[in-house]
Amino acid sequence: MAPTALVCGAGGFIGHHLVRRLKSEGFRVHAVDRKHPAFSPSAADAFVLGDLRDPEVVGAVVDRPYDEVYQLAADMGGAGYIFTGTHDAEILRNSATINLNVLEACRRQAVSRVFFASSACIYPAHGQADPGAAGCHEGSAYPADPDSAYGWEKLFSERLYLAYARNHAMTCRIARYHNVFGPEGTWQGGREKAPAAICRKVAAAPEGGSIRIWGDGRQTRSFLHIDECIEGTLRLMRSDADVPLNIGSEERITINDLAHRVIGLSGKTLSIENVPGPQGVRGRCSDNGLIRARLGWAPTRPLAEGLADTYAWIARQVAQARDPRAA
Q: CATH code for 194-221+251-284+301-326?
């Protein structure tokens, strides 16, 4: 009999790719989200449209002891959504409610293995005040001082999953994702992250024009391609690593340099205009020492490779939005 998996948040970017990978491995996959994937049909065997903030919806989808449950659903977005403070109450309420509901339903159904998608946003802001700050290692999460309500909720939910693992003999695995990007990710609307936003701006800009970058552009990040995110997720889920692990890249880059790379891919001559705007911490990248030690694996794909396929995909979306015949 085929193994079974439930993917919560399967209409989102990472969840959609995860469903596809699980199906390729022979799983029978059930999926749930408030929306279908935006850019291609889900590969799930069954897809439930439902709001995981509703305990009745959660009870209806967590209705058996799945072999694997992946909890990716969250109220999230890029800097323009997370760091303005305007959405803090919604982010905290919505995401915490989802995690409380899903985890309790998994306990009731004696689900053997649960994965929780946390975030690098849990790391203390004071350790990321410099663009050249050391990579975020897992042990630096406490004393806690996340830079956003989003980070605080993720940190609370990490504690929630760890507590259920201790008190209810559940197997819970936790990944701290670092800036995942790639084709079929959100690229417009205010919730897109930096790589997608920059790719969209460059694709839409006329030759000889300019693009706007929030902040001075010297803030740094590392960015992880979706393929490596999925690979790391599955390796962690099936491992004996009972502590949160980073899944991210150690290749640090400034946001202005990221923009220059995307401009290079476009073949255009464009200038960069740095303007005021939300930007989060000054410097963040992954420290992969612990994941190498625990899993014998860490992401290695160069940023340049992932940017190439991501820009090509977003450029097609921009062209199609302008003229549907350009698809």
A: 3.90.25.10
